[in-house]
Amino acid sequence: MITALDKNTALVLIDLQKGIVGYPVAHPIEGVLANAAKLVAAFRKAGQPIVIVNVNPAGAWTKSRKEPASPRPAPPADWLEIVPEIKTEPTDIFITKHTWGAFFETAFDDELKKRNVTGIVIGGVSTSKGVEGTARQASELGYNIAFATDAMTDTVADAHAISIKYIFPGIGEVGVTDDVIKLLAVAG
What we know:
Layout: E1 9-14, H1 18-21, H2 29-46, E2 50-55, E3 93-97, H3 108-114, E4 119-125, H4 127-140, E5 144-153, H5 157-171, E6 173-175, H6 177-187
Parallel strand pairs: 1-2, 1-4, 2-3, 4-5, 5-6
Helix pairs in contact: 2-6, 4-5
């Protein structure tokens, strides 16, 4: 259950881009995108920051022995574009990540600190990779985290369930879009 939101809370949406949302997922993507869009509208109305994160797998990805030796090829032209259901504005914060977590080697933390953000609400695809990776980094950096579980999904249902049941409660509060919207009105 989400009990409160910080006065300065940012909405963080992970990888709601054309190249990712087309993957087969555990929950209908239309519902996930509809809830993410509701959160965008509520955060915009409240005057709170919105962070739009996409992932570019080309180039500077973390390496392990399992990774191919050659650089990853550039994705198709529209692969990185945020889906039209998520209405972005030029004042939003746009972050392109190259790993599972959005804080690694990006200006994300600096952008949040410039705005005195102390809390984040997070959603997106995939729950167990981009969302969890970013949330773990946010926790390590001291942000208060709320998870909008109906605004996220995963390509693997069990991975989604494990993140929500076992990982997220250890680093933040877990709820749904309507909980966040109600608390957003109180936080302002």
